[in-house]
Amino acid sequence: MKRIVLLLTLTAFFGLAFLSACGDQKEAEQSEAKVTSEDVKKEAKEALETAEAYTQQQKEEYLQQIKAKMEEFDQKMQALQAATQSKAADLKEESKAEFNQSMEVLRSKKQAAADKLEELKSSSGKAWNDVKAGMDSAMDELDKAFDRARSHFG
Question: For 56-153, CATH number?
Answer without folding.
Answer: 1.20.120
